[in-house]
Amino acid sequence: MQADPADVWYYRRKGADMSASGLLRRVDSAVWELPADSRPGMRVPVRVYASTSLIESMEETVIDQAANVACLPGIVGYSFCMPDGHRGYGFPIGGVAAFDPEQGVISPGGIGFDINCGMRLIATSLTEPQVREVLHELIDRLFQAIPAGVGRSGLLTIAPDQFREILREGARWCIRHGYGTEEDAERTEDGGALAGADPQAVSDRAVERGLNQVGTLGSGNHYLEIQVARPENVLDARTAEILGIDIPHQVVLMLHTGSRGFGHEVASEYLRSFLDVMNSKYQLGVKDRELACAPFSSPEGQQYFAAMQCAMNMAFANRQMIMHRIREVFSEVFHRDPFDLGMRQVYDVTHNTAKLEEHLVEGQSRTLLVHRKGATRAFAPGMPGLPERFRDVGQPVIIGGSMETGSYLLTGCAEGAATFYTTAHGSGRVMGRRQAQRTFHVSQLQRELAERGIHVRAVSKKVLAEEAGGAYKDIDEVVNAAERGGLSRKVARLVPIGNIKG
Amino acid sequence: MFQDAWEAIREVLTDTAGDLPVDPELQRNLRLDDAELDLLLVRFLQEALFLKDSRRAIYRVDRIAVRQTADGWNLDARLSGCSVDPGGGAGGSDVKAVTVDQLCVKQSETGWEATVVLDL
User: Fold this and answer.
1) Cβ atoms of residues A386 and A157 within 8 Å
2) pLDDT per position as a tens digit, A245-282
3) Residues near A281 by beta carbon (within 8 Å), at least 6 away in sequence
4) Would the N or C end of chain B have less CB density within 10 A of its end CB?
5) Record: contact B100-A267, CB cut-off 8 A
6) Distance between terminal CA atoms of chain A?
7) Nearest by CB to B53, which of A213, A288, A463?
8) Is B118 on the interface with A (CB under 8 A)?
């Protein structure tokens, strides 16, 4: 039977226009597939979750990169790309791949340089009118209180041994030292601390690089945003209430940052060491050096897994310290205890990870190493590993949009089993930073943001153009595709009123 | 080429192309080696990121010598640095990593050329 042309999307490859190797076929309303026999070496098919307009705007390199991932040893099921997928290094951003722990590999390129880059959402009992009155003061004070930009010192002055404690304990170290509550940890993926972290797997150089960075925002697409859940944007009131979004025009805060230079150093060092051994010792050929990998069960693979979990813990601690400072600033501005202001964490998710998880594969329960790079775990209701408070609604998922367009709170759902319970992580860029600088004018952007009631402070003006809403995909299109594909369900859309950037 | 690539990273980090005031106390010697020339360049540039975070300083290359050896390549460099403004940072865009994506070092008729992609 002839396929409906609307259900087939060709992407142009150099010298192979409209060839069979460049054919993606729609297999469900928001799911596209590149068969495993499309390219030499592919062990599994590629599956891309996207609407027609998202797939049409996706760079061809994304499909090439997902196909390269499909060639890695031990991959199980599919090489996935989420609706916000865009070009990455090695794996695409939005790339998801699960590997057999015995036969498969671990790859820093499947996790990203910013290990445990993630999102934290903090509720308040304040409403938009209450915050509007002091919005400029709040943003200005947050901008002064939270180190952002290049080379800034963090909120903690600690010795290397204390930093290594953080690598082992994650957010729990901060809580143990008075920078948060036990409930914060319960509302963090993995309780804010990965048990497999081993500081011995981390170089002194990485420790030296990260020592001063606990409690720093960074720059680029990292931000702290004040947002509002307006009644018309609360799409599932019951679930929203369970998650803590239960007041009309409620103000929340969204934080996006990761493991900073420490995680970048860990990833860079292990990528380099994997390049040394993958061919000579393990005969692993890859189609892109950014896919450097080692067998997961090898000494090198296990060492990276332990070091990577240290970087995950550092990132959880980083977001915990920043949240502590946010609570202090709100307390100073409103002259009330932060917990009287209802400043409770909704959830903290990571979107650059590799984790050992149990999944059903062809009816059999298997332990798999799931790489998620620019992709968010989205456990369904009732799954083990979820805190009791989320057992009925599923794991909260936080998807950040641009400073202009808004963000989403969602939850995982049962149909997510198809992608090892994974969904999107953000809007996904549609243009590079340099192109955005050429396309958007900072002064016009600032004027438009001000007219819309969004107050922004940034260390570098250039970053405002780079992070303009037009540089990103349409966030509504991304979350709708994720919902149509059965990856996650929308709970509330959150609109920005203030933002600080590095 | 190595020095020019370092300068390019320095421009990204500081958003300025001009000289920065050098702190006489922030002087370093650097020696690196690698079997591959392109990977030596990556390691060299990663040093700029390491110093930015660990010393909170932006360094420039005063002099550098790159040599081919029996085992590959090595370099000796003299660096001098400028402390980052503790209140406002270095003013540019942070660079997460020097990637090996599309990495290319080649000799042309006019000299050496390199393509290096940075993760921002």
Assistant:
1) no
2) 999 999 999 999 999 999 999 999 999 999 999 999 99
3) none
4) N
5) no
6) 54
7) A213
8) no
Could you tell me the two tokens for A20?
Answer: 């069979």
Residue A209's SS3 state is helix
Token reading at A400: 């950040």
Contacts of A83 (CB under 8 A, 6+ apart): A30, A49, A50, A51, A54, A94, A424, A428, A477, A478, A479, A481, A482, A485, A487
pLDDT digits (tens, 9 = 90+) for A437-482: 889 998 899 899 999 999 999 988 888 888 888 899 899 999 999 9
Beta strands in A194-309 (DSSP E): 223-229, 250-257, 294-295
| Residue A425 known to be catalytic | yes
User: Any idea which of A156-160, A304-308, A391-395, B109-113 has the lowest mean pLDDT?
Assistant: B109-113
What gap in Å lies between CA A97 and CA A88, rounded to an integer?
A: 14
For residues A179 and A321, the answer to whether their CB atoms sit within 8 Å is yes
Asked if A240 and A246 touch (Cβ cutoff 8 Å), the reply is yes
Helix A160-169 to helix A299-334 angle, to the nearest 10 degrees?
100
**CA B30 – CA B47 distance, rounded (Å):** 9
Q: Report, as an integer, the average pLDDT of A76-88.
A: 97
Minimal Cα–Cα distance from B81 to chain A, Å? 13
Specify burial of residue B33 (Cβ count, 10 A radius: 0-12, 13-18, 19+): middle
Which CA distances in Å does A466 have to A258, A439, A501? Answer: 19, 9, 11
Which residue is closest to A289 within chain B, CA to CA?
A: B100
B56 vs A153, A210, A265: nearest CB: A153
Q: Residue A18: which pLDDT band, with cuts at 50, 70 and 90?
A: very low
Query: Closest Cα partner for B120 from A32, A95, A218, A215?
Result: A218
Measured distance CA(A374)–CA(A111) in Å, rounded = 8
| Contacts A462 to B, Cβ<8 Å | 15, 92-93
Asked if A433 contacts A280 with a C-beta cutoff of 8 angstroms, the reply is no
Burial letters for A354-374: b for 16+ Cβ neighbours within 10 Å, e otherwise?
bbebebeeeeeeeebbbbbbb
A434 alpha carbon, distance to own chain's centre? 23
Using a CB–CB cutoff of 8 Å, tell me whether B14 touches chain A.
Answer: yes
Count CA atoms within 13 Å of residue B13 on its CB side.
33
Q: Are A402 and A467 in contact (CB under 8 A)?
A: yes
- The whole-angstrom separation of Cα B29 and Cα B78 is 5
Instruction: Give the list of residues 6+ apart from residue A81 with CB closer than 8 angstroms, or none.
Output: A46, A47, A48, A49, A50, A62, A63, A66, A92, A94, A95, A96
Question: Assign residue A30 a region: left if phi > 0, alpha if psi is -120 to 50, beta otherwise?
Answer: alpha
CB contact under 8 A, A150 and B89: yes
The CA distance from B100 to A429, in Å, is 21
Structure tokens at A325: 């400072």
Q: What is the pLDDT of residue A385?
A: 86
Residue A23 has pLDDT above 50, yes or no: yes
Cβ-Cβ contacts under 8 Å between A and B: the total is 110
ipTM: 0.93
How far apart are alpha carbons A44 and A420 in whole angstroms? 15
Find out whether A438 and A501 touch, Cβ atoms under 8 Å: no
Q: Active site residue: A222, A256, A264, A425, which one?
A: A425
